[in-house]
Amino acid sequence: MLTVLYLVPNAADAAVARRVSMLRQGGARVVLAGFRRAGTEWPKLDVIDYIELGETFDANFRQRIGAVLRAAVGLRARFHGVAEPDLIIARNLEMLALADRLLGAWADRPAIGYECLDIHRLMLRGDAVGRAMRATERYFARKASFLITSSPAFSREYFAAYRQSALPTVLLENKVLGASARATNPALAGNTQPLRIGWYGALRCGKSLAALADFANVMKGAVEIELRGRPAHTEFNDFDGFVAAQRHLHFAGPYRNPDDLPAVYGGVHFAWAIDFFEEGQNSSWLLPNRLYEGPLHGAIPIAVEGTETAAFLKRHGIGVVLPDIRRQTLVEMIGNMQPETVTALAAAVAAKDERLFAFSDDDCRDLVERLAGFATRAPAGAKTFEALA
After folding, report:
1. Which of 62, 98, 103, 264 is least surrounded by Cβ atoms within 10 Å, i.e. has the fewest?
2. What are phi and psi of 388, to 5 degrees?
3. Which pLDDT belongs to residue 379?
4. Domains along the chain with CATH numbers
5. DSSP for 70-133?
6. How far is CA 14 from the centre of its chain?
């Protein structure tokens, strides 16, 4: 049985739980090691061992780097007696640095996989800081066997375009794992008034919040906006105060994935899959969780032109792609949409195979089988990352 050591920067992240579950469903054993965010507890996951490396704080990059440096001291000793892994999956760059340091802790060197699901803006800077960050990434990935990303645009626009990676790539989209029965869009039951748009998940885009609130106000009750998830308060001037002042925009708090998804998405017609948090970079390249959560449960996804999300919708013939999110555009393309159009769009989403939006047991087994292939051929210091021109 394949044994995976999963190194993570935030053990309480729901995406970590999803990856652990996927590995377990695929037949692997998992050891979880990493950091605990302040105010959270270690999650109860199906793993054979936990190794806590320290505590970190949200939105405090310097503190997190300090925690990694402290964890690196005596790191190998922390893993004494831990089941010898066949491979290590390092989630994010700081965990890749620790994975590199762990090599030699066991008689047989495990293979290393670099899991990179977002491209931080620091990595894209054109100055000395950006060059240093990219050089650091290449250095610590020099012994990696493979790369895991969640969007083909990350491979195309960053790893290839910036000449960062020559590694084999495993594409693991942010699909739902452990999905229950699919909910249906209210439009399929003849309910299209008022139109309801759900913006769920990581709420971090001030542009989206302002545009949706303005749109709902202009529509005077014909459109209602529901927000759920975890707002990044550091990205808004006053998220709570702004939302409280809105008549047709409401925040209903966090939700559990996948348990709450049918109830959350089953009550809205559209899923807002637009994010300008890092416009033209990460936000343009990612395929967000909501792109899969919403359509799985009947919601019609809304994307903006020029993004990988829009390309996904066009490729699969579903959803609405907007040229921009100006008030006039939203009113004309969403607010004035006829009931029969909403119903047709909802029917197109409902007709899709759920495997487009959710992982199956076969997907889990296929993943573990592929990872096992990497575990049998760990590189001996082979140069897998190219130098910058």
Report:
1. 62
2. -65, 150
3. 52
4. 3-175+360-375 (3.40.50.2000), 186-356 (3.40.50.2000)
5. HHHTTHHHHTTTSPPPSEEEEESHHHHHHHHHHTTSSSSPPEEEEE-----GGGG-SSHHHHHH
6. 10
Query: For residue 164, which of 112, 100, 102, 116 has the smallest C-alpha distance?
Result: 116
Predicted TM-score (pTM) of the model is 0.93
pLDDT the model gives residue 387? 39
Distance CA 363, CA 358 (A): 9
Integer Rg of the chain from CA: 22
- Range 48-84 burial, b when 16+ CB lie within 10 A, else e: eebeebeebeeeeeeebeebbeebbeebeeebeebee
- Find the helix or strand (DSSP H, E) in which 199 lies: strand 195-203
Element (H, E) at 140: helix 128-140
Tokens 């021109």 map to which residue? 389
240-282 pLDDT, tens per residue? 999 999 999 999 999 998 999 999 999 999 999 999 988 889 9
What's the token pair of residue 81? 């007696």
* Residue 210: strand, helix, or coil: helix
Note the Cα 43 to chain centre separation in Å: 18
Asked if residue 273 lies in contact with residue 322, where contact means CB atoms within 8 angstroms, the answer is: no
Question: Per-residue b/e over 233-265, b at no fewer than 16 CB within 10 Å?
Answer: eeebeebeebbeebebbebeeebebbeebbebb
Q: Which two tokens stand for residue 296?
A: 């799985």
